[in-house]
Design a protein that fits this description.
It contains 10 helices and 15 strands. The radius of gyration is 22 Å and the shape is globular. Helix content is about 30%, strand content about 20%. The chain is an alpha/beta fold and about 400 residues long. Strand 12 and strand 13 form a beta hairpin.
Length: about 400
């Protein structure tokens, strides 16, 4: 990983943290709307596009058709694009997502389409959202101009529990989400809705959940979720990372001496045992002492090389030696977004906190791995000093 402050080593191939030609605040934010078949993605999109604050959005969908964007909104149409009467642009994926995003950017730059300030991507119901996220991180032609804002997952209140029991895709869609929307809540029994919501909180306790009927939803819940600039407030950080990652400091204050290792690895309050067999777990680890950037990078590189496919989501704030503010990190599987260093800590709590959503990875494995690397790093200076002393004495 390159140092978040701008210098540092060139990253290995598993990390696509190339130099960026635009800072995150100048890039166009992208929201990914996912959810299993019939969860109401198109209904939600149709309602969002009627909102006055969403009149400069480019929407990328997979197909036009009877169940696509409400044709009452269509102003002009072509084979690949539709201009909606509220000014939004709707286009169909052609070739692949990268090609579509680049084509949209070029048309915007050349004045051939609206000056959109946000992109919304609707995935297919069977889609794993990870490849879309990977495109946003790794493709330089995309990540130089766009930045991932949030993954929004819709869950059908009528069929969601059964889908989580029997299918892998809905579990992963819910696990990687920044926001969860329960749809069709007017058609399900209140007790069933409560049980499904509890299960989703168990699966992904860091993602806020909202209930929606016929796509009615305040757009503010879905947009500007990610951390895009170095001046992010405490509210913005908590909105992105989740309130559960801001547990009170136990005992000693932030300025006092703290142990290196976990007290270091405190997690969320224990949750009931999962009643499904997906193997997905979620927890937040806290570290009380600063990391060197080299040590933290090594820990993440070893973890991703060993268990990358099962790291469904990682995000957090990292206390790095020599930095005035925390470093914002987030990744999906073996790939990480470019880190953002905040100008200052958003609160007096300067602990590192890392949210992990994993599949078949015991929490203890991550704790032990990071602990071993921290212990090795702590011992290295003493070993080097002893070697130097011995060489001098010789």
């Amino acid at each position: 990983m390159p140092r978040a402050g701008g210098g540092g080593e060139r990253p290995p191939a598993t990390y696509a943290w190339q130099n960026r030609t635009m800072n995150a605040a100048a890039k166009i934010p992208v929201s990914v709307i996912t959810g299993f078949l019939g969860s109401g993605k198109t209904t939600l999109l149709g309602k969002l596009l009627r909102h006055p604050g969403m009149n400069r959005v480019a929407v990328i969908i997979n197909e036009f058709g009877e169940q696509s964007i409400d044709h009452d909104l269509v102003q002009t149409s072509s084979e690949q694009m539709m201009v909606l009467d509220n000014g939004c642009l709707c286009c169909r994926v052609r070739g692949d997502l990268q090609e579509t995003l680049v084509d949209l950017w070029m048309k915007r730059r050349n004045g051939e389409t609206i000056d959109f300030n946000r992109v919304v991507i609707e995935t297919t119901g069977l889609a794993d959202p990870a490849p879309v996220i990977h495109t946003m991180i790794t493709d330089t032609s995309v990540c130089n101009t766009y930045t991932l804002d949030a993954v929004i997952t819709l869950v059908d209140a009528v069929n969601g529990a059964r889908q989580l029991d029997t299918l892998e895709e809905p579990v992963k869609q819910a696990a990687v989400a920044d926001r969860l929307v329960l749809t069709k809540t007017d058609l399900a029994a209140p007790a069933d809705i409560d049980a499904l919501e509890a299960r989703l909180r168990e699966l992904n306790p860091h993602a806020p959940i909202v209930r929606s009927v016929m796509g009615d939803l305040d757009p503010a819940f879905l947009i500007d979720v990610g951390v895009r600039n170095a001046k992010a407030s405490e509210e913005a950080i908590e909105r992105w990372l989740g309130a559960s990652a801001f547990l009170p400091v136990e005992g000693a204050g932030a300025a006092q001496a703290r142990p290196l290792l976990p007290a270091a690895a405190r997690s969320l309050a224990p949750r009931p045992a999962a009643h499904h067999s997906s193997g997905v777990d979620s927890f937040c680890l806290y570290y009380d002492r600063p990391f060197s950037w080299k040590t933290f990078s090594l820990a993440m590189e070893v973890l991703t090389s060993l268990r990358g496919p099962d790291l469904l989501r990682v995000k957090g704030l990292v206390d790095i030696e020599g930095e005035r503010g925390p470093v914002v990190v987030q990744g999906v599987q073996h790939l990480f977004h470019p880190p953002v260093t905040l100008q200052a800590w958003p609160s007096d709590d300067h602990r590192t906190r890392l949210v992990f959503i994993t599949r078949n990875i015991p929490r203890a494995l991550i704790e032990n791995l990071v602990g071993a690397i921290l212990a090795t790093a702590a011992a290295a200076p003493a070993t080097a000093a002893a070697g130097a002393a011995a060489a001098t004495a010789g």
